[in-house]
Amino acid sequence: MAWLYLIVAGVLEVVWAYSMKQSEGFTRFVPSVVTIVVMIASFALLSLSMKSLPLGTAYMVWTGIGAVGAFLVGLILLGEPIHWLRIVAAILITTGVVAMKLSSDH
Questions:
Q1: CA–CA distance, 70 with 103 (Å, rounded to integer)
Q2: pTM higher than 0.85, yes or no?
């Protein structure tokens, strides 16, 4: 169950990052509220996952999902520039997250 909490927490991190961008520096009410509510939910689920997962594993997977997810949202929804080096960085982060998950199964 801890891994499910962690994955959902990571996805929620992407949601709050996107809604924070949409809040335009917390000047728009609805995206600002969504940011705060989803952020709290993400942290709560991260905290629950840390009851049984190591700190380093949980935090790296959470931030990795958030970083790569926000990168993809930026490309797909916000039209941010695609550069080969950004793609390589996202692949390296994803590889690190997968390796951390695999190493925690032992």
A1: 25
A2: yes
